[in-house]
Input
Amino acid sequence: MAFDDMVRGGTFPASSTTAARVDQFLRAVYGWMCAGLAITAITAWLIASSPTVLMAVASNRVLFWGLMIAELGIVFYLSARVNRISPAKASLLFIGYSALTGVTIAFFLLMYTGQSVATTFFVTAGMFGSLAFYGTVTRRNLQGLGHFLFMGLIGVVLASFVGIFWHNDGFQFVLSFIGVIVFTGLAAYDAQRLKAMAAATPEGLTENYAIVGALALYLDFINLFLFMLQFMGSRRD
Output
C-alpha cells in the first residue's frame, strides 16, 4: 500500500452516515490533532529546557536517528493496522508519536528566538485554519489537486534528505518555498478528504480512523510550521 494511501486515507468500506455523524467524526479528528500539537509543544519545551537531555540526544547520532526511524515506524504501523488495532493502542501510538516529534523539533526551535517561533505558530495556525475550513466547505473536488500535491510531497521529502548533507542557503530557500505551497494545499485537500472518510468509516472503527485523520492534519500543520519558520524565524545570535 502506498504511503499516500496509508497516511491520507486509502480506500474505506462503504457505510451509511448522517450529517451528525460526520460532525462528530470531524470534532474527534480536530480534537486529537489539537491534543497532539499540545503534547508536541510541551515535550519540545521540556527538552529545550534541559541541557542534559539536549546534550544526550545531540551527542548520540544513533539515538537521534533512532528517534526519527521510530516516528516513521509509528506512522506506517498506525496507518497500515488501523483496521486491526484497538482504539486504546491507536491512541497510545498517536500520543507517542506526538511526544517523539516534540523531542526532535526541540532542536529546530532552539535555533530561533521565542518571539519569532510564537509569531510563526500563530500565522501558521491562521493559514491552516483557513485552508482546512475551505477544504471542508468547498464543493469543488480537490482529488486532482491531491495527486499533484502527493508528487510534490515526494519531491520535498527527497530534497529534505539531500538538504541534511548539503547545506546551501539558496537550496534551502527554494525547498522551503515549495514546502509551504505543498503543505498549504494538503491542508485543504486532507480536510475535504476527511468528510469522505467520515462517511465511509465503519461504526466500530470511528475512533481509529479519527486518529489516522488527525495524524494526517497534524503532519500538515507541523511541516507547514517548520517551513514557515525558515522564512519568518529570527535566528538566535
Confidence is low (pLDDT under 50) at residues 1-17. The chain is about 80% helix and 0% strand. Residues 169-200 form the longest helix (32 residues). Residues 18-232 form one domain.
